[in-house]
Design a protein that fits this description.
The protein is an alpha/beta fold. The protein has five helices and five strands.
Length: about 130
């Protein structure tokens, strides 16, 4: 089980992702929008931050810089999340030294498998939603 923080300005997408990750056995918290999220990112024991790329007022790459400067001794992995095409998202993640990326359009199973691979956890099969 990993401790994950989702930072996204879209509460519907973020809520769905939170439910998926919780069903896979992770402890997940959600911060809607970028402002104030650096405080949430300093929480001890945080393993992963899923960070939306496009948010009004402060985009994901700029927020990642703030989190790194303000992070103290905690250095969770950070994954960019966006609806942009995979090649551009991959390049953006590499340019900002993010740990990885996920496309918002990715299938549920692919998202869970990708994140668990990044965390070094075994992929779990997900129970179908009722």
């Amino acid at each position: 089980m990993a401790t994950i923080l989702i930072i996204d300005d879209d509460p519907i997408y973020a809520g769905m992702l939170q439910q998926r990750l919780e069903r896979a056995g992770h402890q997940v918290s959600l911060h809607v929008g970028p402002f104030g999220s650096t405080l949430a990112a300093r929480r001890p024991g945080l393993d992963l931050i899923i960070l939306d790329v496009f948010m009004p007022g402060l985009d994901g790459p700029a927020l990642l810089d703030l989190i790194r400067k303000d992070g103290g001794s905690s250095r969770p992995k950070v994954v960019f999340c966006s609806s942009m095409d995979a090649e551009s998202l991959s390049e953006l993640a590499a340019r900002h030294q993010a740990s990885g990326f996920i496309a918002k359009s990715a299938a549920r199973e692919h998202v869970i498998e990708s994140l668990e691979r990044l965390l070094g956890a075994p992929a779990r099969s997900l129970k179908p939603q009722p």
